[in-house]
Design a protein that fits this description.
Blueprint (H helix, E strand, L loop, with lengths): L1 H17 L4 H5 L2 E2 L1 E3 L9 E6 L3 E2 L6 E6 L4 E2 L3 E2 L1 E4 L2 E12 L4 H14 L1 H11 L7 E12 L2 E11 L4 H17 L9 E4 L2 E12 L4 E3 L6 E6 L2 E6 L4 E4 L2 E4 L4 E2 L9 E2 L4 E3 L6 E3 L1 H7 L6 E6 L4 E6 L3 E3 L5 E6 L4 E2 L5 E3 L1 E2 L1 E12 L8 H10 L1 H11 L7 E12 L2 E11 L4 H17 L9 E4 L2 E18 L4 E5 L4 E5 L4 E4 L2 E4 L4 E2 L9 E2 L4 E3 L6 E3 L3 E3 L2 E3 L32 H21 L4 H19 L1 H8 L11 H4 L5 E6 L4 E6 L3 E2 L6 E7 L2 E3 L6 E2 L4 E12 L4 H14 L1 H11 L10 E11 L2 E10 L4 H14 L12 E4 L2 E12 L3 E3 L4 E6 L2 E6 L4 E4 L2 E4 L4 E2 L9 E2 L4 E4 L4 E4 ...
Parallel strand pairs: 1-7
Antiparallel strand pairs: 2-3, 3-5, 4-8, 5-6, 8-16, 9-11, 9-13, 9-14, 10-11, 12-13, 15-16, 17-18, 19-20, 21-22, 23-24, 24-26, 25-28, 26-27, 29-36, 30-32, 30-34, 31-32, 33-34, 35-36, 37-38, 39-40, 41-42, 43-44, 45-46, 46-48, 47-50, 48-49, 51-53, 51-55, 51-56, 52-53, 54-55, 57-58, 59-60, 61-62, ...
Pfam family, one: Ephrin_rec_like
Keywords: Disulfide bond, Membrane, Signal, Transmembrane, Transmembrane helix
InterPro entries: Growth_fac_rcpt_cys_sf (IPR009030), Sushi_SCR_CCP_dom (IPR000436), Tyr-kin_ephrin_A/B_rcpt-like (IPR011641)
C-alpha cells in the first residue's frame, strides 16, 4: 500500500513538472514589462503588466500568458514608452456691440483682443490650476463680424504632461464660467467704433467637443488610444511611420527597431518573418518545393513560411479534403505531405414509399391490375421524378426497381431510386423533399391510376402520402466512401492495401498488392521478399552469371483471397405499414424545402440570367418609386397653395418658429430656447399628406431642469490599523463635518454657477474593507444644467488627490486597537438619478433630460399625463386637474377649450315642426326627447320619442303628436279610420283592429264582438256579453264572491289559531312561577306589596296612592285563567279588554303611549290606557320589570306581558256613618 502511494505521488510530481512552464524564462523575454503576483514557479497561467508610462502595441498594458505544457503563449512581450500628445481644441465667444454695427468696431475690437491674449491665457490657467492639464497656451484668435456681434474663436493648445480627462474638464469649466460671468474673458465694456463708441456684452460661449492630437514632438510615434486616454507611442518593430500613422512594413521588407520612418528590404534567398521584424534564410520553403509529387500542386509564401498542397482535378485527399496548409517548424514541415488519389463519385440508393388508397374495395383484390398498370407506366414515373430535380443538378436519377404491397384498403408502392454523378448531399435531400411535396400537391404526379378493376368490382384510387426511406451509399469494390461538404466520393485503397468491409487495411506480412482499389493481396514466393510499402516482391539477392544480370522478381502467382475477405449479400426487407400525413409537419417541411431551393437557385449557374433579370426589375422599380417625389415637385410650381395651411403650424404652435422646403410640403418646427415637445423633441418635421400635417401637432412646452441625485465615492486608507476598528470614530468625524463637506463642494463648483442653495448633501454612509474606508456622499443638485452638475462632480474627483484639504477632516483616528493615520486613496462618482416636481414628468431624449409639463387638454395623475375626462377641459399646461365644461357648452380643440355649441340639426326642427309637444335636450343638444301633450301620441302610439343629431339631421324621422283614435277605429298614416268589416277594437289609441271570430258578430260600431243568438237553444238566449277573457260577466262576479269568502274564512281560522297558541304560551309561563318565590328584599313575588313597590312607576296614579293602608287584595290570578274572587270580575274583564289588544305578536312591545319603541309594527299594539285603582278599583301590575330611560315611555315585550296580573281589591267596609 505504501509503495502505491509513493508511486502516485511520484507520478503527480512528474506530471506537474511536465505540464508547468518556467516563470523565469518568461521574465527574460519581457521588455519594459513585469510579471504580476499570480505568476510563480510551475504556474499554468499568469499576467504581465507594462511598466509605468509604457503600453503594448494595441494600447493596453496587461498581457495574459497561458502555459501549453512546455512554453508560454505568448512568450515575448514588448512595451514602448507612451507620452501625452499635444492636444488642440477651441471655444467660441460671441460678443455683442449694442450701439454700433460690429463692422464699425471691428478694427478696435481686433486690436484690443490681441493685446489681451496674455490675460486670456492667465485667466484660463487660473481656472484650471487644480487640474493636471500640463501647459496651456492660446495659439490663435479668429475674429469675424456679423451684424451687431463679433465671433471670436480661441484656439487652445495643451502640451506637456497631463491627462486627457483633466483637459476635457478644463474646457467644460471655461465654457460654464464664461457663460455665467460677463467679465470673464472680456477685457473691455466699451469699444471704439470710429467716431463713436459702443457698449459690449457677451452673448454666448460654446466649446468644441473634439480634440486634435499631435505627436510631432515625439519622432516616429503616432496617437494611440489606451486605457488612460490617447497617448503618443513609437511605431512598433515591423512597422514604420507613414505621415501621422504607423503602417506594417510592405511585403518583402522588415523593421527590427521601433519608431522608424522606413522599412528595410529582405535580400533575395531569404524570407521575412511573419511579424516582419526579421529577415531569415528560407530553408523550409526550398525543401518543401523540392519534393516530387504527383497530382499535387505546391505553392509557398516565403514571407510567412507557409505552403499549400492542392489536389488536381479529379483527385482528392484520403480525408476528403482538396488542399492542406503546412507550416515550417524549424526542422521540417508539419503535417507531413498528403497524397492525392483519383476518386469516383458514389451512388445513392434511396427508397420512396408512395401510399395509395382503394376507396371501394380491399386493396388485395385490386393488386394484380395495379401492378400491370404500374409496369405500363414506368416511363411516366421516370419522367415525373427526373423532371422534379432537373433544375437542381445535372446528375441522373433513375428508377432501379418498383415493389408493390398491400394492406387493408391501401397499396404501398416503393420506388428504388439511384442517384448518379456528383450529387451534393444537400441538393439530393432537397430533390427528395420536392418529390414528396409534389406528390402531395399535384393530383396527377406519380398517379396514373383513376379507376381499377378489382375482383369485387371497380374502385377509385387516391393518393395518401409519400415517405423517404432506405438511404444507402454505394461504391465499387475496393473503394472507400469519403464524405465531404460537397459530395460523397469513392476512393480506392492505395497500393499495398486492400479493402476489408468499410476500411482499407495494409497487406498482411508476406503479401503485397501493386494495384490500387483491390479487395485482396497476393502472396510472395518463398524465395522473394515483400518491400517496405508492400507493393511488390523482390529477390532476396542478385546473382550474376557472366555478363548477364538478373534482378529477381517472382513470376505472378495465383490470387489468393484472405480468409476474412468474403462477399456477403444483405437482403433488405421492408415492413409494410400504414402511412399517415401530418399537415403541420408537411407545412414546415414545405417551408424548409422552399428555403433550400432558393439557396440552391441563387448559386446555380444555369439560373444566373434569371436572377439578374429579377434584380434588374427590382432595381428599376426602386428607381421608379424614388422618382415619384420629383414628379410631385414638378407639379408644385411657383404659386402653388399648400393644402395643409401654414397657419396650422405658426399660430397653432406657440413658442416656436418654422422653416419649410419643397414648396412648403415639408416644414420643420423648432421650439424656442427652454421649450421642447411632450416627447422631449427640440424640433419636429411635419409633412403635408393630403390636406393634413403629419404627425399630429405637437406643442412646445416650457421645461424644467430635473433634480439629480448622484453618489460621490471617496476612499481613505487607515495606514496603521484595520479599517473596521476605526470605523466608529471615522463616522463621528464625518457626521460633524457634513456641512463642511457641502460648503467645500459648493465653493469649488462656485465658478461653475453652483451656489449654496444649488446642492444638498442628503446622506453620508461609511463602510470599511480591509485597511480602507469608503464614504458614499449622496448629493442632490437643484440648480444649473445637468451637464454643469456632471462637470462639478468630475472636477471634485479629479482634484481630490491633488488638494490635500479637500474632503479631508481626518488626521488621526482613534481605533479600538490604537491610533491610525489616514490618507486619501481615490475618488469617483456614479451616474445621476433624475426626479421632477409633481407638475412635470421626466423625459430622457438623446442624452438630454427634461421635466416636461402635461400639455393643454391633459392633467397629471400618478406622474403620468392623461387626457381630460369627457365634459372637462384644460387650457393650461402642467395642471393637476381639469375644469368642467358647463351646460350648453362643449369641449373643443382636443380638450383645451370649452365654448358655446350650436347644434347643426337645429332645435326649430323639433319645437315648431312637432306641435302638441315639448322637448328637453342633453349632451349639448345632441340628444333631445320630445314628449307629446296629454291626450296625444305618435302614429305608432308612443307618448315620447328620443331624437339624436347625426350630422345635420335628426334621427329617427320626425313623428307628429296626434289625438289617439277612439274605440272602433285605428291609426293609418296619422289618420283614424274605422275598423274593417269583421274586425273590432274595444280600446282607444290603437294601430290595429282585432278579428271577430266565427259564430260571433261585431256590435257597438266596431267596439265589441259578441256571440250570435240562436233562438232554438234557450240556454244561449240570456248569455252575457263575452269579454276578452272568454268568461261572461256573471261568471266573473260569482268567482270573485267565492274568492272573497274563502279568504275571509282562512283569516278567521288563522286568528283563532294564533290566539290559542298565545294563551297556551302565557299559561305555560305563569305555571313556571313557584308559589314561594322571593324577591331580593325577601318579599313574596306574588304579593301585592312587591308588585306595587317594583312597578308603581308603570301605573299612573295619584301620589301616595300605593301606600294607602286601605288598599287590600284578596286573591291574584293570571290573565289567561280569567278567574276573579270578587264581584267585580265582569268589570275587571272590561278593563282588561280596554287596556290590552289580545292580538299579541312574539317579542313585540306594549307601551303606555303611542308607539315609540324599536321594532314596533303598526297595527299590532295600541297604547295602554291604565285607569287609576281608585277610579276603577282595578290595578294592573307588571311582575317582570326592565329598567327604562326616564325620558322614554315604558316598553315591554311579550315575555313581560305573560307575567301581567290583575288584582281585584277587597270591597271596602261600609262607613258606619
Amino acid at each position: 500500500m505504501r509503495n502505491c502511494v509513493v508511486f502516485l505521488l511520484c507520478l503527480v510530481t512528474v506530471k506537474t513538472k511536465v505540464y508547468a512552464c518556467d516563470d523565469e524564462e518568461l521574465s527574460r523575454h519581457l521588455y519594459n514589462a513585469t510579471l504580476q503576483e499570480n505568476c510563480y514557479q510551475n504556474a499554468t497561467s499568469c499576467q504581465s503588466t507594462c511598466t509605468s508610462g509604457h503600453v503594448l502595441e494595441n494600447g493596453s498594458q496587461t498581457t495574459s500568458h497561458v502555459c501549453n505544457g512546455t512554453s508560454w503563449i505568448p512568450n515575448t512581450v514588448t512595451c514602448l514608452p507612451a507620452r501625452t500628445p499635444v492636444m488642440t481644441t477651441n471655444f467660441t465667444i460671441v460678443y455683442v456691440t449694442e450701439d454700433q454695427p460690429a463692422g464699425n468696431c471691428f478694427y478696435s475690437f481686433n486690436v484690443r483682443m490681441w493685446e489681451s491674449i496674455s490675460s486670456f491665457r492667465n485667466a484660463i490657467r487660473s481656472t484650471c490650476r487644480e487640474l493636471e492639464t500640463g501647459s496651456i497656451s492660446i495659439e490663435n484668435l479668429e475674429l469675424s463680424p456679423l451684424a451687431f456681434q463679433v465671433n471670436v474663436v480661441f484656439h487652445v493648445k495643451f502640451s506637456g504632461e497631463g491627462t486627457e480627462t483633466s483637459r476635457d474638464i478644463c474646457m467644460d469649466m471655461i465654457e460654464i464660467i464664461s457663460n455665467g460671468n460677463q467679465n470673464y474673458l472680456k477685457p473691455f465694456s466699451v469699444i471704439s467704433c470710429g467716431a463713436s463708441h459702443s457698449a459690449v456684452k457677451k452673448k454666448q460661449t460654446t466649446r468644441s467637443a473634439a480634440f486634435e492630437y499631435n505627436c510631432t514632438e515625439m519622432l516616429g510615434s503616432q496617437p494611440l488610444a489606451s486605457s488612460g486616454g490617447v497617448r503618443c507611442v513609437h511605431c512598433f518593430p515591423g512597422n514604420y511611420l507613414n505621415s501621422t500613422r504607423c503602417k506594417p512594413c510592405l511585403q518583402g521588407t522588415y523593421q527590427a527597431v521601433p519608431g522608424q520612418l522606413t522599412c528595410d528590404v529582405c535580400p533575395t534567398g531569404k524570407h521575412v518573418t511573419e511579424d516582419r521584424t526579421k529577415c531569415l534564410d528560407s530553408v523550409c520553403v526550398s525543401t518543401f518545393l523540392s519534393q516530387k509529387t504527383q497530382n499535387i500542386d505546391l505553392t509557398c509564401t516565403s514571407e510567412n513560411q507557409m505552403c499549400m498542397s492542392t489536389c488536381l482535378g479529379g483527385y482528392i485527399q484520403d480525408d476528403g479534403g482538396l488542399s492542406t496548409v503546412y507550416n515550417c517548424s524549424g526542422e521540417g514541415w508539419f503535417p507531413p505531405l498528403k497524397s492525392c488519389i483519383k476518386y469516383e463519385y458514389s451512388t445513392y440508393n434511396v427508397d420512396l414509399e408512395a401510399v395509395y388508397t382503394t376507396n371501394d374495395a380491399v386493396a388485395a383484390t385490386c393488386l394484380s391490375q395495379f401492378q400491370a398498370f404500374t409496369s405500363g407506366h414506368r416511363d411516366y414515373f421516370q419522367t415525373n421524378i427526373s423532371t422534379s430535380c432537373s433544375e437542381l443538378h445535372d446528375g441522373n436519377v433513375t428508377i432501379e426497381n418498383i415493389t408493390i404491397g398491400s394492406i387493408a384498403f391501401q397499396i404501398k408502392m416503393t420506388f428504388h431510386l439511384k442517384f448518379y454523378g456528383s450529387w451534393p448531399t444537400k441538393i439530393m435531400d432537397v430533390c427528395m423533399d420536392i418529390i414528396k411535396i409534389t406528390f402531395q400537391s399535384r393530383t396527377t404526379y406519380l398517379h396514373p391510376y383513376t379507376v381499377l378493376q378489382c375482383t369485387d368490382g371497380r374502385t377509385n384510387v387516391t393518393k395518401v402520402s409519400a415517405q423517404r426511406s432506405g438511404d444507402v451509399l454505394n461504391c465499387p469494390d475496393g473503394r472507400l466512401i469519403i464524405n465531404s461538404t460537397e459530395a460523397s466520393y469513392c476512393i480506392p485503397c492505395s497500393a499495398g492495401a486492400f479493402q476489408n468491409d468499410l476500411i482499407c487495411l495494409p497487406c498482411p506480412n508476406g503479401t503485397y498488392q501493386p494495384i490500387i482499389g483491390q479487395t485482396f493481396c497476393q502472396n510472395c514466393s518463398d524465395w522473394t521478399k515483400v518491400n517496405e510499402d508492400r507493393t511488390e516482391c523482390r529477390l532476396e539477392e542478385i546473382t550474376t552469371l557472366g555478363n548477364i544480370s538478373y534482378t529477381g522478381s517472382s513470376p505472378p502467382t495465383e490470387v489468393t483471397l484472405l480468409p476474412n475477405v468474403t462477399e456477403q449479400s444483405t437482403e433488405l426487407t421492408t415492413t409494410e405499414q400504414t402511412i399517415t400525413t401530418d399537415l403541420a409537419e408537411t407545412k414546415e417541411t414545405t417551408q424548409n424545402v422552399l428555403t433550400s431551393i432558393l439557396t440552391i437557385l441563387s448559386t446555380s449557374a444555369s439560373l444566373t440570367t434569371t436572377v439578374v433579370t429579377i434584380e434588374t426589375t427590382e432595381t428599376s422599380t426602386e428607381k421608379s418609386t424614388s422618382s415619384s417625389p420629383t414628379t410631385t415637385a414638378l407639379r408644385t410650381t411657383k404659386g402653388y397653395t399648400i393644402p395643409c395651411g401654414l397657419d396650422q403650424l405658426s399660430s397653432a404652435i406657440p413658442n416656436s418658429k418654422y422653416t419649410c422646403a419643397a414648396h412648403n410640403q415639408t416644414c420643420t418646427v423648432e421650439c424656442s430656447s427652454g421649450y421642447v415637445t411632450s416627447e422631449g423633441e427640440a424640433s419636429v418635421e411635419y409633412r403635408c399628406e393630403g390636406d393634413v400635417w403629419t404627425p399630429n401637432r405637437k406643442l412646445c412646452l416650457e421645461y424644467d431642469i430635473p433634480f439629480t441625485t448622484s453618489a460621490l465615492y471617496t476612499t481613505y486608507s487607515t495606514v496603521d490599523q484595520v479599517a473596521l476598528s476605526c470605523l466608529q470614530d471615522f463616522r463621528e468625524i464625518t457626521e460633524r463635518n457634513k456641512d463642511l463637506f457641502q460648503k467645500t463642494i459648493t465653493d469649488y463648483c462656485g465658478d461653475l454657477g453652483i451656489n449654496a442653495g444649488g446642492l444638498k448633501i442628503e446622506n453620508i454612509t461609511s463602510i470599511s474593507l480591509s485597511f480602507q474606508i469608503t464614504n458614499t456622499i449622496l448629493i442632490t443638485f437643484y440648480e444649473e444644467s445637468v451637464d454643469v452638475r456632471e462637470v462639478c462632480l468630475d472636477y471634485i474627483t479629479l482634484i481630490f488627490l491633488n488638494v490635500p484639504s479637500l474632503l479631508m477632516p481626518y488626521s488621526r483616528l482613534n481605533c479600538t486597537s490604537g491610533l491610525s493615520d489616514v490618507t486619501k486613496v481615490s475618488a469617483s462618482h456614479g451616474s445621476p438619478s433624475y426626479s421632477c416636481n409633481n407638475r412635470t414628468y421626466l423625459v430622457n431624449r438623446t442624452s438630454q433630460v427634461y421635466c416636461v409639463p402635461c400639455a393643454p387638454g391633459m392633467y397629471m395623475i400618478s406622474s403620468k399625463c392623461v387626457p381630460c375626462p369627457e365634459g372637462h377641459y384644460q387650457p393650461l399646461p402642467g395642471q393637476l386637474t381639469c375644469e368642467p365644461c358647463t351646460e350648453n357648452r362643449t369641449v373643443v380643440e382636443s380638450g383645451t377649450n370649452c365654448t358655446g355649441y350650436t347644434i347643426p340639426c337645429g332645435l326649430d326642427q323639433l319645437s315648431s315642426a312637432i306641435p302638441n309637444s315639448k322637448y328637453t335636450c342633453a349632451a349639448h343638444n345632441q340628444t333631445c326627447t320630445v314628449e307629446c301633450s296629454s291626450g296625444y301620441v305618435t302614429s305608432e302610439g308612443e307618448a315620447s320619442v328620443e331624437y339624436r343629431c347625426e350630422g345635420d339631421v335628426w334621427t329617427p324621422n320626425r313623428k307628429l303628436c296626434l289625438v289617439p283614435c277612439v274605440p272602433g277605429m285605428y291609426m293609418v298614416s296619422s289618420q283614424c279610420v274605422p275598423c274593417p268589416e269583421g274586425h273590432y277594437q274595444p280600446l282607444s289609441g290603437q294601430l290595429t283592429c282585432e278579428p271577430c271570430t266565427e259564430n260571433r258578430t261585431v256590435v257597438g260600431s266596431g267596439t265589441n264582438c259578441t256571440e250570435i243568438v240562436d233562438e232554438e237553444n234557450d240556454f244561449n238566449l240570456r248569455k252575457s256579453q263575452v269579454g276578452p277573457t272568454g268568461l261572461t260577466e256573471t261568471e266573473i262576479i260569482v268567482i270573485a264572491a267565492v274568492s272573497v269568502c274563502v279568504v275571509f274564512f282562512l283569516v278567521v281560522i288563522a286568528t283563532v289559531y294564533y290566539c290559542k297558541k298565545s294563551k297556551a304560551k302565557r299559561r305555560t309561563s305563569h305555571a313556571d312561577v313557584p308559589g314561594d318565590a322571593k324577591s331580593g328584599d325577601g318579599v313574596s313575588v306574588k304579593s301585592d306589596e312587591y308588585l306595587r313597590g317594583s312597578h308603581e312607576g308603570l301605573i299612573p296614579g295619584k301620589s301616595g296612592s300605593t301606600n294607602d293602608p286601605k288598599w287590600t287584595y284578596r286573591d291574584e290570578k293570571i290573565i289567561e285563567k280569567s278567574t276573579f274572587a270578587s264581584a267585580n270580575e265582569a268589570k275587571a274583564l272590561d278593563v282588561l279588554n280596554t287596556i290590552i289588544d289580545i292580538n299579541i305578536d312574539n317579542e313585540e312591545c306594549i307601551t303606555a303611549q303611542p308607539p315609540v319603541c324599536e321594532n314596533v309594527r303598526e297595527g299590532k299594539w295600541r297604547p295602554l290606557h291604565v285607569r287609576h285603582k281608585n277610579e276603577s278599583n282595578v290595578a294592573v301590575v307588571i311582575n317582570k320589570a326592565k329598567e327604562t330611560e326616564p325620558d322614554k315611555a315604558p316598553c315591554r315585550t311579550l315575555s313581560d306581558y305573560d307575567n301581567f296580573q290583575i288584582y281585584v281589591p277587597e270591597p271596602e267596609p261600609s262607613d258606619p256613618d
